């Protein structure tokens, strides 16, 4: 925990994203009520900044999911699915698959129609 605080300078968003990155990369795992590092601290590869940690997380997503997230970031915090379709240029099925992938990885865009971005949209 001291290393995490030192690396994140106490920034709660950055701290949360670093932990998420460490869990997703397999460097940190939960055993009961404790978090266990799977490698020595020097080998953990803690990202240097918020951009770096988010970039690493986005690099694990497909190109289509990244395209959908880029379009969502321009459209706004919440949007209607047709707005995202128009902004992304993706077909509805591809867009819904991309949203599912982002949700599964913890990077969901927020549709006004379905705030949890689940597949209950009409195809």
Summary keywords:
123 residues; mainly alpha; two-stranded antiparallel ribbon; two-stranded parallel ribbon; 4 strands; elongated; disordered C terminus
Tally of separate helices? 6
Mean pLDDT: 76
Radius of gyration equals 17 Å
Lateral strand order in the biggest sheet: 1-2
Largest sheet: 2 strands, antiparallel
**Portion in strands:** 5-15%
Q: Kindly state the percentage of residues in helix.
A: 40-55%
Distance between the termini: 45 Å
Total separate domains:
2
Structural class: mainly alpha
Spell the H/E element sequence: HHEEHHEHHE
Global outline: elongated
- Secondary structure: number of strands: 4
Low-confidence stretches: 113-123
Quickly describe the structure:
The chain is mostly helical.
Overview of the structural elements:
With 123 residues, the chain is mainly alpha-helical. It folds into two domains: 2-59, no CATH class; 63-111. The protein contains six helices and four strands, in the order H-H-E-E-H-H-E-H-H-E. The protein has helices spanning 2-8, 12-24, 50-59, 63-75, 81-88, 92-104, and strands spanning 28-31, 34-37, 78-79, 110-111. A two-stranded antiparallel sheet has the order 1-2. The protein has a two-stranded parallel sheet with strand order 3-4.
């Amino acid at each position: 925990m001291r290393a995490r605080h030192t690396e994140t300078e106490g920034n709660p968003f950055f701290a949360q994203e670093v932990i998420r990155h460490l869990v997703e990369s397999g460097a940190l795992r939960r055993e009961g009520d404790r978090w266990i590092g799977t490698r020595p601290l020097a080998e953990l590869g803690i990202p240097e900044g918020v951009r770096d940690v988010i970039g690493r997380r986005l690099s694990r997503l497909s190109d289509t999911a990244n395209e959908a997230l880029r379009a969502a970031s321009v459209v706004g915090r919440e949007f209607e699915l047709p707005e995202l379709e128009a902004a992304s240029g993706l077909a509805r099925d591809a867009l819904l698959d991309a949203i599912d992938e982002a949700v599964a990885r913890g990077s969901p865009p927020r549709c006004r129609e379905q705030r949890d971005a689940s597949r209950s949209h009409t195809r």
